[in-house]
Amino acid sequence: MDTPGRVKLADVAARAGVSVATVSKVVNGRYGVAKQTIATVQEVIDDLGYVGNLGASGLRNSRTNVVGILVADFEPYSSELIKGAARATNGTPYDVMAYAGGDGSGWERRSLARLGGTLIDGAVVVTPTSLDAAISLPVAAVHPHYSSTWLPHIDCDNAGGGESAATHLIELGHRRIAFIGGRQSADSSELRETGFRDAMRQAGIPVTEDLVRYSRFDPDAAHQIASALLSLPEPPTAIIAANDLTAMRVMDAARARGLRVPEDVSIVGFDDVPEALLCDPPLTTVRQPLQAMGAAAMTMLLAILDGREHDQHLRMDTELIVRSTTAPPRVSQ
After folding, report:
1. Cα-trace Rg, the chain
2. pLDDT per residue over 218-255, tens digit each?
């Protein structure tokens, strides 16, 4: 509710001789308003001191001093990235807006269109799928689905992480190892699978293609896939999952079939979100430094906004964290 004496859109409209809808379009940077009308409305905004939202402030100052962190959903992976990105703004003139745009096609472009120019000066976008050089807002990305030569971005050594997960299981004695990937269209998932296959090839172990499935990073899909794999006449003795959340659902599927983890089946995740340590038993996983990655992406974005030199691409190391969901196979293979 507007406070007494606060200038409202209606006040601006009355002074400028236009409709409230027209003022709203100007404030939010929308199309369909003549240049002269925009100039008139902007002059009234300046005269009256309209500060009804960040958009009006942005129109007056050209900058809002707000940066966005755009994610598809607020879940453990993105939450860790947000923590790191927000920490990187400490001591800067920028405030942070975290925004969940939904997991539908083109969510990133829609989110940037809604927020860009009037609410935020730039954005860190987490796992974008459809950004290209046509966007006008400064952006730094974390784990874009497709490698890009133009978009500044941060990722981790996905191939090395997939290889270390498989090598760990091979060294424990596993030979029949399943891999549940994420989205086949995502570079991160493809590279993790590449690492898995490299480790198997180096060990002289053929990959059983029927044990390679894809969950789209969907925990429910991972549960169904794991149930099907563990129902095979010759089930896998170990499963590598696309990320920690899907790995935890794989654990649920194993328990639902009366199997023990890791005595009957070993499970490895990827990410090392806080829940990986808290689940029962604690999850063996490949750690990517999520908070550090979020901070690096934000640092990259702030450098872009301030016109400073910045990395175009930064790749961070992964680390295998061995906990309690992996052990030697129960029977010889």
Report:
1. 25
2. 999 999 999 999 999 999 999 999 999 999 999 999 99
The residue whose two tokens read 């009006």 is: 56
CB 62 within 8 A of CB 46: no
Lowest mean pLDDT among 2-6, 202-206, 288-292, 318-322: 2-6
Residue 197 is encoded by which pair of tokens? 């296959």
pTM of the model: 0.81
Question: Residue 210 carries which DSSP code?
Answer: G
Token reading at 141:
């990305």
For the record, the structure tokens of 74 come out as 């607020």
Phi-psi region of 7 (alpha: psi -120 to 50; beta: other; left: phi over 0): beta
Closest residue by Cα to residue 119 from 183, 174, 52, 178: 52
Taking a C-beta distance cutoff of 8 angstroms, is the pair 192, 186 a contact? no
* One-letter identity of residue 181: G
